[in-house]
Every structure is written in C-alpha cells, then in structure tokens.
Automatic annotation (TrEMBL):
SUPFAM superfamilies reported in the protein's UniProt record: S-adenosyl-L-methionine-dependent methyltransferases
InterPro entries: SAM-dependent_MTases_sf
Domain of life where this protein originates: Bacteria
Protein name (Swiss-Prot/TrEMBL): Class I SAM-dependent methyltransferase
Source organism per UniProt: Mesorhizobium atlanticum
Entry keyword annotation includes Transferase: yes
Family matches, as Gene3D superfamilies: Vaccinia Virus protein VP39
Keywords: Methyltransferase, Transferase
Amino acid sequence: MEGTHSSRRINAIAEAVGAKTYLEIGVADGDTFFAVSVPSRTGVDPYFRFDPKLKESKRNIFWPITSDKYFMEVAKKKFDIVFLDGLHTFEQTFRDFCNAILVTHDNSLVVIDDTIPSDIFSSVPDMDLAISTRIREGGVGAAWHGDIYKMIYAIHDFFPRLSYLTVSDNGNPQTFVWREPRRYFSPRLGSLEAISRMTWFDLQGNMDLAFLTPEKYAIAEIISKLSPSSV
C-alpha cells in the first residue's frame, strides 16, 4: 500500500529505533495503519471503513470499539509507537493521550495528528460547522483539524517530564512526544480550563510553544533521543 505522510514519518523513526509494536487510535480506511512497517500492529476504531475480520492476522489486531473502552478493558501490553488520530476534539484526544502514556515505556513515542489547524475555520471542533462556515465566508476546501492544538499546551503545562516537537512541513502538522524532562519548565496557560477555552487567535499568540520543526530535523532529533544507543 502506498504510504502517507504519517507512515513515512513513523517508518523512518521505527526503523531507526527498532520499534516492534504499534498502536493506532482512529484507523478509518487504514491508509496509514497498513503502510506502517512495524512487526506487530494494533488498530482501534469503532467504525472501521473496511471489514477488520478480513484483514486480521498474527501481525494485525483490530478492536472495533471506542478508544475509551479499549484502554479500560483491553489494553495491557506496552507499545513502542502510538499514533493518535481519533476524534478531532481536545477532550477526547487528551483522554486518549493520558491513557496512551500508561501503555508506553521509557523509550516509546506518541504521535498526535492534526495539532496545527490550517485556518480559523479548521480549528472549530465541529466538522460540519467548520466546513460550512468556511464556504459561507467565501473560502474553499474541506480541511478540518478541530481543537487538537490545545493538546500542545496541555502537554507543555502539565507534563514537564515529557518532551515534544511539532513537524511543520511535508504533510499534516503532527506533534511527537517522548519521555525526557524539559529544562526550565514554566507553565504558560496555568490551568486546563484556560487551555480548553483557547481560540485560534490564542494559538497564534502562543505558537512558539508548538516547537515547530521541519520534518527532516524533527525525525533526526527524535531518533537521537529514542535510539537504543542513547538510552
């Protein structure tokens, strides 16, 4: 299967660090899932756009349930890489992220999709409203990221022992998170309530905390942190 920008980035890191287990939340058509070249792959989606029974194998395990149910009732093993691409809302993604941290280890990577909206319309949590409003205002396109950008600030303010950066080119912006204490920790928003109330304009004023990094340098940085020789 032809790869996506997500699988390209994940594969480059997975190969370099020897990742063997992969978890994807929000599989949909499986364009990224099936293109990820990790030996053991687990996909979670309540509404797969293919018949998971026909695709299951020793390598591919599918759970047609919500991520909440998966983490609560199923998840037991640790994963080397977790890709979060579920609902485009801050609340659900934050919950998925907190749960994902519990099924990772010290050398794992968590990738969060859609963390920088392409415009003010794309930042609206409701997809239909985002697209219809863009069209009404004379815009074009169906780009939609929701308010997942708030995850950057939740991680920055409340997870000082996690480091992150955001890939800013060659595809959709994604934030990569790994376990490494950050120096000079200082919360900026101060509360989850303040973060939950952020707008697209607040994002623009705090874009420095996204740590935007070109893909080439981001992948090299992550590999240097997660490769076995660095541990």
